[in-house]
Amino acid sequence: MKDLKLHIIYNLGIYIVAFVLKFISFFNTKIKRGVLGRKASFLTLKNNLANTDKTLWFHCASLGEYEQGLPVFKELRALYPEHKIVLTFFSPSGYEIRKNTDIADVVIYLPLDTKSNAKKFLDIVSPELTVFVKYDIWPNILNELKKRQYPAILISALLRENQIYFKPYGGFMRNALFAFNHIFTQDEASKKLLNSINYNQVTVSGDTRFDRVYSQLEQNNQLDFIAQFKDEKLCVVAGSTWAEDEAFLVPFINQLQNKDIKFIIAPHNIKTVQIKKLKQSLNKKTILFSEKENAHLENFQVLIIDTIGLLTKIYSYANIAYVGGAVGKTGLHNTLEPAVFGVPIIIGENYQKFPEAVTMINSKGMFAISNVNSLKNILNKLIENTTFRTDTGNKNIAYVKKNTGSVIQIISYIRILKASN
Length: 421
Description:
It is a single chain. The chain is α/β, with parallel strands linked by helices. About 50% of the residues lie in helices and about 15% in strands. The chain contains 18 helices and 14 strands. A seven-stranded parallel sheet has the order 3-2-1-4-5-6-7, sandwiched between helices. Helix 3 packs across helix 9 (about 210-215) and helix 5 packs across helix 6 (about 140-145). The longest helix has 23 residues, at about 1-25.
């Protein structure tokens, strides 16, 4: 009875959400992009897929999950070149940045999870394999997949005891998990939670992000303008910073007497007003990425990156990295990206929900700060002590390398699954 009530509430809630999103879209540009994008999803599918096409379907909530799933997507693209790949996003931030990715033939917003949309979507796509990344569990779509006996897997799953799947009243949502033929979890705790609800087709394969970032070492990470700016000096890269991070960083930079220390700041928010405010707060010679043309970058001490898409490569020039998001409540950004380049990392104190951060802090490759003084103490030590800095960074690359291999396990399973269907 409780499951039936939850089922009714959920389906009614989806229609309410659709109405609310349409209303909010009149006042919010990001929401508007999502509403208009979903409106076009079915037409885009019909225009790009034929009944005779063999398809694979990848779904990611947002950009982070896309990056997490990318090493698996690349392998499947190479293994099944005759298939068309449909990539769906829930969030505008994922769709807008990766809508032109060459990993997929069709990139769209996932239609809202109504029963009619689920049937309509699967009528068109008919995927031979579906891959969901980490979470974003949509019960109507997944139950329809199960009803049609379309194979599906969930990769890099990270589950918590307080989630609805593990509550006495969570049967409707819990059933959606059983639509997956197999679930690959990041840790043993997630596996035990699945076992507790009698879901046993589960493997602890780890986090595919380790494979993703480790592959970055094989890429060309050269950025001539960064090399020019760094000028072979010690460089601190602060990535994905928020205002609260910058409130710690700026005082340190402003009081620093050593002119040979370079700083690169890549804010999460690159709106003109925020960038201008950040630049004005610095008393060192500062230049923006957008101002770099024909500039003698080596003469500046601070470079602010007022664009997106460069941070991963920029980390390859770091001697020390600061990763934003954990000073406030916005959520820690990707710490594995700098870790793979063997640099020590500094973050804020609100990192407990991020397993990789907990591990790197315990292994002394990462340091958490809570105020300007604690940032000053650890930065000064890392700047002044070359041996300490090198040893600290080496712990991070060793941690990343140790945890690669998730993709091999997942692809091996998919080969067997596809062969049996």
